[in-house]
Amino acid sequence: MTAAGSPRFESGATPSRGETSVGGDTFTSENVPGIAVERDRVIASGLTRRIDGHTYRQVIQIHEHATTPKPAEVELKTYAPGTGVITEANGELHLVRCF
Questions:
Q1: Is the pTM of this model over 0.85?
Q2: Strand partners, 39
Q3: Residue 14 belongs to domain spanning
């Protein structure tokens, strides 16, 4: 977490502790031409999400646009600091357990 308490997104990786994110930030999380090309955009940050009785704070929401393989795929994912992905596929898949 930063001094301001906001998560930060490291370009080309998943969110990690000690980094901040700003809505509108874009990055390439996968770039292997012909195999996997994905361009992502932070659409919200500083969110709070409650899933199965656990409250996650400083959550960021990412719009993922994969152009390879064809056809193109679009997903929304939310990430929580110290946990990683907590929702995926437009919010339909939820974190079940964190070790």
A1: no
A2: 28, 65
A3: 1-89
The CA angle 13-42-52, to the nearest 5 degrees, is 85
Strand order of the sheet with strand 36-51?
Answer: 26-32, 36-51, 54-68, 73-80, 84-88, 93-94
Q: Are 23 and 39 in contact (CB under 8 A)?
A: no
Please name the amino acid found at residue 12: G
- β-partners of residue 34 are none
Residue 75 counted as domain residue: yes
Amino acid at 54: H
Read off the pLDDT of residues 9-68 as tens digits, 9 standing for 90 and up.
333 344 444 445 567 888 888 899 888 898 999 999 999 999 888 999 999 999 988 887
Work out how many domains the chain is built from and give that number.
1
Residue 92: pLDDT band with limits 50, 70, 90: low
Is residue 99 in a domain? Answer: no
